[in-house]
Amino acid sequence: QVQLQESGPGLVKPSQTLSLTCTVSGGSITTNYYYWSWIRQAPGKGLEWMGAIAYSGSLYDSPSLKSRTSISRDTAKNQFTLQLSSVTPEDTAVYYCNVLSLGGMDYWGKGTLVTVSS
């Protein structure tokens, strides 16, 4: 079973860059047809898909966040990362990493709360 664990600072100041890492175990991020996403949920709001990196390294962006979001991966460490620049308090949310496969696999990390505040 694939397991995902988010890590990163819980508090970020406005205008700074939020950086999170998702560490994957029980499966490789290069396994064919696996798609690795970042998803967030702000207080009182629904889930928002932020972007993804595919098994091949191809990137998929959210149109609403594309200008501020960067997703990358470290295959040696079996990790993928999210960077969100120029954060504001509206970026306060629980951030999740997720994996979907064409075969129907769907696993989530437990999520990590990031608060944007001075």
Tell me about this structure:
By secondary structure, the protein is an all-beta fold. It has strands spanning 3-7, 11-12, 18-25, 34-41, 47-54, 59-61, 69-74, 79-84, 93-101, 106-108, 112-116. The strands form two sheets. Strands 2, 4, 5, 6, 9, 10 and 11 form a seven-stranded mixed beta sheet that branches. It has a four-stranded antiparallel beta sheet with strand order 1-3-8-7, with no helix packed on it.
Compact summary:
With 118 residues, the protein is an all-beta fold.
Number of helices: 0
Structural class estimated from helices and strands = mainly beta
Q: How many beta-strand elements?
A: 11
Tell me roughly what share of residues is in helical segments: under 10%
Q: How much of the residues is beta strand, in percent?
A: over 45%
Radius of gyration: 14 Å
Q: Kindly state the mean pLDDT as a whole number? A: 96
Distance between the termini: 39 Å
**Biggest β-sheet strands, sense, barrel:** 7 strands, mixed
Which term fits the overall shape? globular
Please mark out the parts with pLDDT under 50 across 5 or more consecutive residues, or reply none: none
* Topology pattern, helix = H, strand = E: EEEEEEEEEEE
